[in-house]
Structure formats: structure tokens, C-alpha cells
Amino acid sequence: MSLQEMSGLCCLEKSRLNSGKVRLPTYPPSKKMDLAQALEFVNAAMFAQLARGLRDVETAWDKGEQLTAAERGEVAVAIASAKVLSTRVALNVTSKIFEVMGARSAATKYRFERYWRNVRTHTLHDPVAYKVYEVGNWILNEQIPIFTLHLSGHQLKFG
Length: 159
Description:
The chain is mainly alpha-helical.
């Protein structure tokens, strides 16, 4: 479900004045602000970071065998940064669903819990904590991240 679809659900409520027979649109300012901030957060931050990561990957791919270890490290940091940001945005937005929709968002008929659950599950396969560490280590110590795979709680290092 898109944010636009969610906004339609959260802003159309049954009127208590007419026994629920007519659905009247209501747009409280707080809900408008929540939705606008979620869209702004997604559009500005995530897409800019993802675009940078994709450009870096494409440049690295074009270099092929000429890619240096330092350049590979910079690409790894760009990808890790994009993963950290996209994870935080996704968790923020999926949590915001419950804040904007209120108690009824937990109703099983809407199935909103699946968005948060899916995002959270994906963050556990390649833990974001490792990516945060890699980015921080690059920024503070200029250390190139070691190529690793995180599979089912095991960390495999290469190089």
C-alpha cells in the first residue's frame, strides 16, 4: 500500500452522527503533517543516497580489474550508507502507519503489520549494525570495510 492509499484510509472515517452510513473526509492538520514529513523524508534523503550509491557502483563496475582497494572501500561505504538510511526510513514510515492510523491500524483486516514485519525481517539478514560500524569506521579512521557476508548469524570475511 502506498502512502497515498494509506492517507485515504486514515482520512476517511465513519461519521458517528449518521450511524456510520456515510463516510465523510476529515483531514486533521496533525495527520497531514505526519504524511508530508514521511514523504519528504523518503523522497529527499533516501533517493539522494541511493542515487549516489548506484553511481558509485556503476563507476566501479566500469573500472573492472582497474578498481583499487580504496575505491572498492568507498563503494562499500556508499552501499552501506544507503542500506542504513533506507532501513531507517522504512522502519520510520512503517511505524508511522500506526501513529497516523491510530488504534484501528492494528485491526487484522487492514494487515498493516506486515509492512513493519517485512522491513524488520529484511534488516536481520544482513544486520544494519554492521553497516553502521563500517560507515563510522570509514569516517573516523579512514579504514576500508572488509568484504563480508552475514549469513544466519555467521560473518564470513574475504581479503
